[in-house]
Specification:
FAD/NAD(P)-binding domain; alpha+beta; 9-stranded mixed sheet; 8-stranded mixed sheet; about 425 residues
Length: about 425
C-alpha cells in the first residue's frame, strides 16, 4: 500500500526560528518546495515577550535579506552600525578605577565603505522585528508550507527520500531534511552525530535601555572582569544590552528590584550617553560552545545552532546561520539546475566543506576571546590591552577584521553578495 504523506516535496526544515525561516526563503528562491515545522504556534514566536534579544546583522547578511525581499520590511526597525568601539573596562564604584580602559580598538565603516550613505558595518534589529519581516515574506511564497504547532518525533531515511513523523501521526517526505532545531538538536541526536563543547559558567543578561544622548550608530563592547558588556544601538535612542555575568550574579540580576538593577546598570554603563534606564523585561541565557562533528549525513543537513553554537562575544551567532542558509541553498540550487540529487551525500559534502572552516575559525576565536577577556588578572589585562592598541594602529589589520566579521572573506555564497539564486 502506498504511503500517503501530508507533504511531499524537496525540503523539510525542522525548526522555525530565525535561521529556519531564512533557509526556507533561500530554498524557495532556489526553486525548491519547502515545509517548515516548528513546535511553537506562530503567534507565540511573533509575540513581543517571546524573546528579548536583538541581533547584529553583518552587512553581507543584510545583502542576503535584500535579495530575499526581507530587508524592505525590516528596514524601518533596523539601526545602522557605523562604528564599533572595543576596550577593556571595569564597573564604576569598585576599589579600582571604573570605566573604559586606555587601550581601545576602533572599527570605522568608512575604512571599507566610502560615502555618507555607504554600506555600514552591519545593522541592529530586535529579533521580534526580524521574525515579523521573515514571516511577512514567507506567507506570500506558494512553495513554502508552514506547519505549527507540530513536534517532530522521528525521522527515517529510505534510499532517495527522507521521512519525518509528527507527534500527531502526520508524515512528511522530502529529498532533504534540515535540522534547524538549536544547539541540542534532536535530529542530530537521533542521527548519532556527536557534538563537543562546554559551558562557560556565564549567562547573558539581556534587556533594552533608553538613553538621553544619541548613540550615532556606535556599538560598544566593554570587556569587564565577569565578561563582555555590549551596548548595541537600536533606533530611537535605545540600545540592546548583552551583559555577561557568572551564573549566580546573572540570576541575582534577573531577580533584583528595579532600584538595584538600575544601580548596577549605571555602574557599568556610565553616563556618556546621559541618563539611562531599562525599558523592557530582563532575560537570562546560558552561554556555552557546542560544535558538531558533522554538518551533514545522506539526506540530512544541519544549519545554525544545530551545526554550532558559539558565545555571543562577537555577535556572530545568527550571522553564521544566515551564511549556512546561503551556502546550503546555493549548493541545492546548483544540484537542481544540473539534474543532481539535492539530498545526496556528494551534494551535502560541498555544503559541509564550504561552511566548516568559517565555523571552526569563529568558534575557536570566540572561545579564545572569552577566556582571554573574562578575567581581571593584571598581566593578562595589560597584554590584551596592548594587543587592542597594536591592531588599532594597523589599518590593514582593522580592515581584515571588519571584513571577516562582515562575512566577506573567503568565498561567500551568492546571496551574501546580494545576488539572487536561480534554478532551472
Amino acid at each position: 500500500m502506498t504511503q500517503e504523506y501530508f507533504f511531499e516535496g524537496d525540503v523539510v526544515i525542522v525548526g522555525g526560528g530565525l535561521a529556519g525561516l531564512t533557509l526556507a526563503l533561500a530554498m524557495d528562491q532556489a526553486g525548491l518546495t519547502v515545509a517548515v515545522v516548528d513546535a511553537l504556534p506562530v503567534e507565540d514566536r511573533l509575540a513581543p515577550e517571546f524573546d528579548g534579544r536583538s541581533s547584529a546583522l553583518a552587512y553581507t547578511s543584510w545583502r542576503m535579506f535584500e535579495a530575499l525581499g526581507v530587508a524592505e520590511h525590516l528596514h524601518p526597525h533596523a539601526q545602522r552600525i557605523e562604528h564599533i568601539m572595543v576596550c577593556d573596562g571595569r564597573p564604576y564604584g569598585g576599589t579600582k578605577p571604573g570605566g573604559p580602559g586606555r587601550h581601545m580598538l576602533h572599527f570605522d565603516r568608512r575604512e571599507i565603505s566610502e560615502g555618507p550613505d555607504g554600506e555600514p558595518l552591519g545593522w541592529m534589529a530586535e529579533n521580534r522585528h526580524t521574525r515579523h519581516a521573515l514571516a511577512k515574506v514567507l506567507k506570500n511564497r506558494d512553495r513554502i508550507v508552514a506547519i505549527a504547532p507540530a513536534k517532530v518525533v522521528n525521522h527515517e531515511i529510505f534510499g532517495d527520500r527522507g521521512e519525518v513523523t509528527l507527534d500527531d501521526g502526520r508524515k512528511l517526505s522530502a529529498s532533504l531534511i534540515v535540522g534547524c532545531d538549536g544547539k541540542f538538536s534532536r535530529r542530530k541526536a537521533q542521527s548519532g552525530i556527536r557534538s563537543y563543547g562546554w559551558n562557560y559558567g556565564q549567562n547573558g543578561v539581556v534587556t533594552t535601555v533608553e538613553h538621553e544622548e544619541p548613540h550615532k550608530g556606535v556599538a560598544y563592547e566593554y570587556f569587564m572582569p565577569s565578561g563582555p558588556f555590549a551596548i548595541l544601538p537600536l533606533p530611537d535612542n535605545r540600545a540592546s544590552l548583552v551583559w555577561t555575568e557568572g551564573d549566580k550574579a546573572a540570576a541575582a540580576l534577573k531577580a533584583a528590584s528595579d532600584e538595584v538593577f538600575q544601580y548596577e546598570l549605571e555602574n557599568r554603563f556610565g553616563d556618556f550617553l546621559g541618563k539611562v534606564r531599562p525599558v523592557g523585561p530582563r532575560w537570562v541565557y546560558p552561554l556555552g560552545l557546542r560544535y558538531s562533528e558533522q554538518f551533514c549525513q545522506p539526506r540530512l543537513a544541519f544549519v545554525g545552532d544545530a551545526a554550532r553554537g558559539i558565545h555571543p562575544i562577537a555577535g556572530q551567532g545568527f550571522n553564521l546561520g544566515i551564511r549556512d542558509a546561503a551556502a546550503l541553498a546555493e549548493v541545492c540550487a546548483e544540484a537542481k539546475r544540473t539534474g543532481h540529487d539535492i539530498g545526496a551525500v556528494t551534494t551535502l559534502r560541498r555544503y559541509e566543506d564550504w561552511r566548516k572552516f568559517d565555523s571552526s575559525t569563529l568558534a575557536l576565536g570566540t572561545d579564545l576571546f572569552t577566556r582571554l577577556f573574562s578575567n581581571d588578572i593584571e598581566p593578562i589585562r595589560h597584554i590584551r590591552g596592548l594587543g587592542l592598541s597594536i591592531v588599532n594602529a594597523i589599518p590593514p589589520a582593522r580592515r581584515f577584521f571588519m571584513r571577516q566579521a562582515g562575512g566577506e572573506t573567503g568565498d561567500p555564497p551568492r546571496l551574501l553578495k546580494g545576488e539572487k539564486l536561480t534554478a532551472a
